[in-house]
Design goal:
201 residues, 24% strand, 7 strands, alpha+beta, five-stranded mixed beta sheet
Amino acid sequence: MAYKREESYDEKVTQGLMKNYRESMQLLGEDPDREGLIKTPERMAKAMQYLTQGYQQDAREILLGARFTESYSEMVIVKDIELYSMCEHHMLPFFGKAHVAYIPNGYITGLSKIARVVDVFARRLQVQERLTHQILDAIQETLEPQGVAVVIEAQHLCMMMRGVQKQNSVTTTSAFSGQFQDGATRAEFMKLISCDLISRR
């Protein structure tokens, strides 16, 4: 086999989480020894480590690993980046799309690295407001561009499944630096992320 992708988990962390999840299931009134739940604590332990893997990743290192000298100085936009994160208040998911742009100032980065930066910060316990600024700050500090723009649109299960139970609500957050603080530049960015330039079938 030419390519094989493997997942690895910290055994100590896995065992600790398994113990806690098993106890939680009992407290909720379930029997963790019944057939359908025997392996659930282990699955939950591994799933949670996967969903919070961003704590072990460095966004700036990712960007620096693919930073290239380039004279291009127009807007670069990567839009509709799918994101999945966990609300730190209720440990329930929120999910949506991030739109990220920067104006180079001597350096560009690999386009996939922008999406990876989104994942690094999304794969942590989060609030959407902080997530938006963390993405912006990492790009601004590492690439030193003329400006960065980040807009996130997301739906939160903590609002959809519990509490006010508003299934159709969408939360939008934004952060801008440098040239994107200029009204005209910001308007161009907002227009470009709102239109569909590629025909999608």
